[in-house]
């Protein structure tokens, strides 16, 4: 925060452009309880894990609704996307009840996410030195038929790795941070003394490394427009004062580069023919089975890798509009605006409901109707 303010005042063109063109939200501490507990333990004991827990005993990162399992269950029943959405999945009712085992910090963060149309996010943690991206939940393997023989190395619980529809985008975002970090891509893991699970790239999908359900990253991806990643900065929760400057230098370029990725992909406004913005319109990118919605002002942002995309905008009561949008390698989102015309689908649905949602038989010109058909038509009219 100090760096952005000082460099902005000093006229740094890169920082000025970032601050002027980007709505930046910074949260110094999501869990002050855990921070205090870890601080009392001290850095020499390596008790960074205490920082994950609140005073009430919640690990905030894993305290969110498990929407991924709900999505996969709906997919197996073939309910997606017509009856169950592939985006903005609602929070389960039982999770919102007052007696639910949900931390007050978690409730506050979920309300904050619903209030602001975030597009890109990162939560900074301790415990390793890598960047983790969704899915963090491992998808259960389909049940084995009773008649099918089990392999010799069969395990009762053998979850499969499920990639998000935005897997390539998540990898790009993770690499943008890890590759700019001064030490994250080194095979020597430093203070953690653990095996390198990233193949010297500094990035890993959460489910491959440490599978867990109900994480902040999965919730953010499935409930909002935001692509959220976890950045693990090392095992020493409280470096000595003499080490702080080097820690800042290790991460400074990574933080700037990561924030700049928000301006990669497409952006635009969805309006009607009178120029009025359309909120909650759905933006569908061909080939990526995960949609986003427009904000209250009809604006949207969609992070995409370079390439050519077939993009459509859809909204209740309007005819859809389709465009081809090109995303370049240079930083700077491609403008893709949509103007939607009103449709008569609302009236058609009303007529269908009056007819018991049964198909209305089309009358073929020139063919005489039977008395029964004529009676049915008169009753409908």
Automatic annotation (TrEMBL):
Keywords: Glycoprotein. It holds the Pfam family CarboxypepD_reg. InterPro entries: CarboxyPept-like_regulatory, Peptidase_M14, Peptidase_M14_domain. GO terms for biological process: peptide metabolic process; protein processing. The keyword Glycoprotein applies. GO terms for molecular function: DNA-binding transcription repressor activity, RNA polymerase II-specific; metallocarboxypeptidase activity; RNA polymerase II transcription regulatory region sequence-specific DNA binding; zinc ion binding. The keyword Glycoprotein applies. One of its GO terms (cellular component) is extracellular space. Residues 1-262 form the Peptidase M14 domain. Residues 136-158 are annotated as: Disordered. CDD domains: Peptidase_M14NE-CP-C_like. Belongs to the peptidase M14 family. This is AEBP1 protein. It comes from Machaerirhynchus nigripectus. The gene is Aebp1_0.
